[in-house]
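Structure (tokenized):
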């Protein structure tokens, strides 16, 4: 028996899942088949970068990374964030107030909590996290990234 609650929950689930980025369809520079992505990424990286999952808060070693360097996309190695823009947001995920020029792209992300803004790698389309308007000066942005989607390269 279909009830209103089941109907609403199934609709909310569909919104939460949303459309997945297809690198070929979106015209990204780096494209791979699903099998190729599974070969080059760890299972956790695949879930986040290709299926838009979210890692558990406070589990990424990159949350505590404080050396000078650059954070790169774990999928295609594109430099994304400078360590100069990293800060402790208290959320449990590596957070930055600004990406490097021409590094990331965004799209609306509708879910059960309303509209958010998804951040993905502009070169391979890998899901990185979300950007919020509650960050520090000078931008007021909080790029809240999944650490598993990033690789740190010390300076």
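Design, position by position:
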């Amino acid at each position: 028996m279909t009830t209103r609650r089941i109907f609403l929950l199934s609709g909310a689930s569909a919104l939460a899942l949303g459309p997945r980025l297809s690198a070929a369809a979106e015209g990204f520079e780096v494209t791979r088949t699903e099998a190729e992505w599974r070969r080059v990424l760890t299972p956790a990286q695949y879930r986040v970068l290709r299926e838009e999952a979210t890692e558990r808060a406070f589990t990424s070693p990159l949350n505590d990374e404080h050396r000078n360097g650059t954070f790169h996309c774990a999928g295609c190695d594109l430099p994304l964030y400078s360590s100069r823009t990293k800060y402790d947001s208290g959320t449990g995920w590596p957070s930055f107030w600004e990406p490097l020029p021409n590094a990331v792209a965004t799209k609306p992300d509708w879910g059960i909590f309303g509209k958010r803004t998804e951040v993905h790698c502009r070169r391979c389309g890998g899901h990185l996290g979300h950007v919020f308007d509650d960050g520090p000066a000078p931008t007021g942005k909080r790029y809240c990234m999944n650490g598993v989607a990033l690789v740190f390269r010390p300076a």
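Reviewer-requested clarification: The helical segments are 4-17, 23-26, 34-40, 43-51. The beta strands are 69-73, 79-82, 86-87, 95-96, 104-111, 114-121, 127-132, 142-145, 150-154.
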